[in-house]
Amino acid sequence: MRVEESLQRGWSQRPAALPRPARMVLPSLKLQELIQEIRGAKTQAQEREVIQKECAHIRAAFREGDAPQRHLQLAKLLYVHMLGYPAHFGQMECLKLIASPRFTDKRVGYLGAMLLLDERQDAHLLITNSIKNDLSQGTQPVQGLALCTLSTMGSAEMCRDLANEVEKLLLRPSPYVRKKAVLAAVHMIRKVPELSDIFLPPCTQLLHERHHGILMGTVTLITELCERNPAALTHFRQVVPQLVQILRTLVISGYSAEHSVAGVSDPFLQVQVLRLLRILGRNHDESSEAMNDMLAQVATNTDTSRNAGNAVLYETVLTIVDIRSASGLRVLAVNILGRFLLNNDKNIRYVALTSLLRLVQSDHSAVQRHRPTVVECLREPDASLSRRALELSLALVNSSNIRSMTQELQGFLESCPVDLRADCASGILLAAERFAPTKRWHIDTIMRVLTTAGAHVRDDAVANLTQLIGGAEELHAYSVHRLYSALAADISQQPLVQVAAWCIGEYGDLLLSGSYEETEPLQVQEEEVLMLLEKVLQSHLSLPATRGYALTALMKLSTRLQGDNNRIRRVVSIYGSCLDIELQQRAVEYNALFRKYDHMRSAILEKMPLVEHGGPQDDEPGEGKEKPWSPKREVQSPTEPPTSNLLDLLDLLDSASGDAQPPPALDLMPGDSLLHLLDLPSKTPSLAPIPGLKVFDREGLQINLSFVRPPETPALLLITATASNTSKSDVTHFVFQAAVPKSFQLQLQIPSGDTVPAQGGPPITQVLRVLNPNKAPLRMRLRLTYNHFGQSVQEIFEVKDFPLDTWQ
């Protein structure tokens, strides 16, 4: 208490307080000093401290309204913004500086607007009137600042309000203003394509300019107009001769120090003119004819020793390919790409391979001349180059070079990177299926691929080879001997082991009889065959499916071998208690054959019958001769497409379950077969129309769904997915996948293709069969994967807004 009383007494006796002295405020730093302080900071904490103190000075200066120093403070704030620190409090100061009559203020104000404002903020609309006044009444430097700002952050509303002012500046006498006005017009067309009509008349006059900057901007503006307005495309086809003359002047005029780049006269302008000519000449004979001679001159006179010349040549090749050029000119373009393949620059070789891959369908014979060079590119250490070379090599395979190309590709398969083995193996198998000269060569090719890269082949490779061997009766002995030798040498390649086990089980009697006469006959004993199959069963490398093949082969050998079957019965009985359910069931059934149905075992385990073909069979070749054959005629295509159960594959819907069973095969018209059986006239019932649904639209690729519900099967919904492409580039490797909840059953039919042509070409379609017995509201998760504009794209999205008629 005494302490408190003394404190109170002291306060009461204290004399009146003197005036407090003014607090000292540290002077604000100049821009150069601020940069030195920030760069001199040794830690990030010191840097933040310096910036926070200076931002406080800047805020105080803005509040005090120090007009002469405002632009200096904003300049420091812009530097802080460039370092990534918040500077939004300077947006309104930008507007004040832009409205100032002083050029020093306008310069920093416009710079701040370009950095701190964008069309997502409403504050940017407040400078529209200031820009309009500066464009109409300002000096050339001020007009240039306003045009630059408009080109950088002008929104659609600003472009509509200021289009007339920019159009007037396009014909001003000053080249400085005209060049910036052209660039602002390009931005306006990109933002608001409907403003095209305003800029059509000035563009024709600007093509007479000699100033390269204005001319390049004009060509860019015309390109934007032609890409977005069909009427502009028709209008500017009249100036093709003028564009050709501009290009001729650049190519033939000779060296100009002002515009030369590595000895090439203004390659930037040449590239822009070539791109515009490509657009104007596409699908137009008259325009293409007018530019053919000039393109030939550019292709032959351009220096290729520097990268600038290669860039011009590449654009020339693209233009020749896109327009309706003469055949000789297209051959010249392919030869230029062939020279690119010999260039030391990897980027140029990659561009050449990509371009040749585009041309291989339209100019196959011309590209074939460069096949040796393409094959050499397979040995490139760069993975991207070897991948492109592999794709092009596979595209060049035909019936005349199948043997040599397959040999080269198989050599590449043995040493290629792991990530390319699957593509290489699949490509060889597809090429062999299409162009195989003989059955024996086809079998040898598939076996070599399985031996080299069996773990990387497609899932259907085993089925295709077994079907091929089964249909070639004269090659059964040859195949079983080859496969037995391959299996004895290596059991690690699972697809090869599966085919070998199947073949030994089917034709083991031919293996033991030695009916196939080789230069060095292979003598095989029954014990060796059984030991090899038991080795496969016991190997830790064998998959459950491989063990199933081996177990079935042993069972079939019980009817083909002459010795005692007790060894086979013991092996089969062991797997009756296997942990793998599939293998256990198979072993139990085989044991039952031995115990209860031994009298039927020989009939049940007969050789697989030959595949029946719809078309007439080719005659068998004579002894010692092999005649060319067509795999397409002998390989039977499946009559029913495989069921696509994507519920556990994609795991896209939370309610999806991997236990869902595949939907039953439902016919669209179930009554047709009965009517045909009774020989009664059938009448197709009318289908209720259901409105379609657009589910995807990006960069010209559209996916539309149309629906049909057969009246006889109300629980079935047939969905036709149609993919169309209005962009300028093809959509390749297109894959459409879908998943539904477990209460539904989904079946995807085979699509009509995997490439959606550009420019509104023929669309591709795919049918989805959805069974909805509970009439639940339909929802579906879709996954699209494709390549577009050189980029790999994957889109996953859910569709819920199906029409009520699709499920009610």
Automatic annotation (TrEMBL):
Under InterPro entries, the record lists: Adaptor_Complx_Large_Subunit, AP1_complex_gsu, ARM-like, ARM-type_fold, Clathrin/coatomer_adapt-like_N, Clathrin_a/b/g-adaptin_app_Ig, Clathrin_app_Ig-like_sf, GAE_dom
Q: What is its main location?
A: membrane
Q: Which SMART domains match?
A: Alpha_adaptinC2 (SM00809)
Segments of skewed composition (Polar residues): 636-645
User: Where in or outside the cell?
Assistant: Cytoplasmic vesicle membrane; Endomembrane system; Golgi apparatus
Source organism's superkingdom? Answer: Eukaryota
Q: How does it sit in the membrane?
A: Peripheral membrane protein
- The region called Disordered is annotated at 608-646
Q: What does the UniProt keyword field contain?
A: Cytoplasmic vesicle, Golgi apparatus, Membrane, Protein transport, Transport
According to its UniProt entry, the protein's GO biological process terms are: intracellular protein transport; vesicle-mediated transport
Gene Ontology cellular-component terms for this entry are: AP-1 adaptor complex; synapse
**Domain GAE per the UniProt entry, residue ranges:** 688-803
Per the record's keyword annotation, is Nuclease included, yes or no?
no
Task: Mark out the compositionally biased spans (Basic and acidic residues).
Answer: 622-635
Identify the Gene3D superfamilies for this entry.
Answer: 2.60.40.1230, Leucine-rich Repeat Variant
Family matches, as PANTHER family: ADAPTIN, ALPHA/GAMMA/EPSILON (PTHR22780)
Family to which this protein belongs: Belongs to the adaptor complexes large subunit family.
Can you say what this protein is called?
AP-1 complex subunit gamma
Q: From which source organism is this entry?
A: Vombatus ursinus (Common wombat)
